[in-house]
Design the sequence.
């Protein structure tokens, strides 16, 4: 899931570095995710839906940090974006919620782009794209060709820009009587291409 808005490159982004996330980053990641959702998602989701996202679904899986597949963008000691990938699909905290997504199952053979967020003050600097491309490159290095994700409405423009195609629309039970609209998206990459990839039809 992602709450990164569509972004474009700008000069200040050159001073922002990407690195693997560490366990001691978790408080800063949590705070940045909260700001990102509160500010960037308001045009796409109601307050009750945003509350469900925080209270019942969560913004990311910290075990990705231990696996070395979650990254952060840092500017002058502040974490300003994060995101990553995994070999396994996201699992929702409630069994009933998880079962509701069985019709939208992600492929066992795909790399899953996970939990891309950008600090609202750093939106439109290309950070969402940088994070996703870093995750794509890491997955490609392990031989993955198919990339998939469940995107929030807020994140869809970013993923479209990066070549992802909509496969299906879904509604994720929020646990408080709400359902969050999201999209199942995917793309294929050419493993023989260079680091910028050749995007194939997904």
Sequence:
């Amino acid at each position: 899931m992602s709450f990164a808005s569509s972004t474009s490159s700008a000069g200040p982004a050159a001073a922002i570095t990407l690195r693997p996330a560490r366990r001691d980053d978790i408080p800063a990641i949590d705070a940045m995710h909260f700001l990102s959702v509160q500010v960037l998602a308001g045009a796409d989701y109601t307050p009750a839906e945003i509350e469900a996202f925080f209270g019942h679904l969560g913004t990311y899986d910290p075990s990705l940090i231990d696996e070395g597949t979650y990254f952060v963008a840092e500017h002058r000691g502040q974490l300003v974006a994060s995101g990553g990938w995994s070999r396994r699909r996201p699992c929702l905290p409630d069994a009933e919620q998880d079962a509701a997504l069985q019709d939208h199952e992600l492929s066992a053979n795909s790399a899953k782009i996970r939990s891309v967020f950008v600090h609202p003050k750093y939106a439109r600097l290309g950070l969402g794209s940088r994070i996703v491309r870093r995750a794509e490159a890491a997955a490609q290095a392990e031989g993955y060709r198919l990339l998939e994700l469940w995107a929030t409405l807020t994140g869809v423009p970013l993923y479209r820009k990066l070549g992802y195609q909509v496969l299906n629309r879904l509604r994720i039970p929020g646990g408080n009587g709400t359902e969050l609209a999201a999209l199942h998206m995917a793309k294929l990459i050419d493993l023989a291409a260079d680091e910028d990839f050749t995007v194939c039809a997904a």
Summary: Residues 7-11, 194-202 have pLDDT under 50 and may be disordered. The two ends are 19 Å apart (CA to CA). The helical segments are 26-40, 47-57, 63-67, 95-99, 127-141, 156-161. The longest helix spans residues 26-40.
